[in-house]
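Run: sequence + adenosine-5'-diphosphate -> complex structure.
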Amino acid sequence: MVETSGQGRRVISDVAGRLWQQRWLLLAGVAAVAAVYAFANRAAYAVPLAVLLLVAAALVPRRPAPAIPARAGSAETRGLRRLNGEYLAAAVADPLIVFDRAASVIYANAAATTTFGDLSPGLWLPLKFRAPEMQSLLDAVLSGTVASEAIDHVEKLPVESVYRATATAVGHGTGLYVLMFKDQSEARRIDRMRADFIANASHEMRTPLASISGFIETLRGPARDDAAARAQFLEIMQSQTARMSRLIDDLLSLSRLEMKPLRRSGARVDLRRTLESVIDSLAPLARDNGIVVERVFAEGPLEVPGDRDELFQVFENLLENACKYGRAGGRVVVTAGPGAAGPEPTIDVTVRDFGPGIAEEHIPRVTERFYRIDAEASRAQKGTGLGLAIVKHILTRHNGRLSIKSELGKGAAFTVHLPAN
Ligand code: ADP
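>> structure
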């Protein structure tokens, strides 16, 4: 109801406005009719006089029509009509090519030329994109069987990139077509990482599970009445279940870190106390491995903003690795103090061992999930291959970073750099 009466009012004001605009012509018309009527019988000049009046009224200069408040939709449409197609294509961040019925380039935006090189007007697209899928895409759209079609397009150089290429007819019967590319490389990389992660996690689970199920079978069969074998197998099964539960704990830790944003509570963590309690909690492991842990802490406060439990987990993982893999060195040094002067003050904590160290080619990869230099050694040490991935994740959440220095045969030093403010 409200809508209808609003529309009615708009029509009335529209008509009134137009009548007002043509008022002189209307007035002259009325005067002309009156003149013809009055003088028709008396003089021959009545009709030319009326015509003269009308012509004079038509020549009265008119002001432009007052702007009628435009409806949002129509304003936008008028704006779009004024818009130059070339500007529009240039404003698109993804590669975009406009081509004609002969599949020749009419226009290519900057993103397209940066990605695919020369795309000068007139260039025949099938010559530029030779993949059969691209040819059939162009054929399908140019033949008019479909208005829009998409394919996956792979560019091998400079690095392999995957695009979703869509060809679409522009409007109706314009003879113009648009070919647009959406970069899918990052999404594909994440998909692949996720698939690899699931495959790795399943493989890690399957190994202890297969071992447990093998022992169950033996215990129900050949070793049914062998008390000594039973005791030994049960012990192995227990250690395998412990391995599975460590793996689940680490996986849950990682997913929690990914799901939960870091609370910026303003809380400060006393790294001295945190490191002391990490060293205390790992004293039995150090003792079992014949490791002496030395502390070199700088004077003064060693505080950083962050989550105490998460930072505890970082130092626990690093010290545990130093005790396990650096066993041969017999000692581990934990150093904490202000970092080297830089744009932002940091507190640096280094866990240094004197074991076999890490070869240069492995250093950039040890923080990847499930990456191990020696898988058997890691499993023997009850490793899951996730410890350093968790460390890296937590440090990223704290705006910190991890640096690793190592030389084969001389041990490894893992340094945590945490912003002090
Ligand atoms: P894991 O659970 O296997 O210990 P991490 O992510 O903690 O997993 O470590 C990944 C790999 O990095 C380990 O398997 C090991 O090969 C190597 N590594 C970690 N710390 C050290 C170290 N201090 N010395 C030598 N190698 C190390």
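>> summary
The longest strand covers residues 161-169. Residues 185-220 form the longest helix (36 residues).
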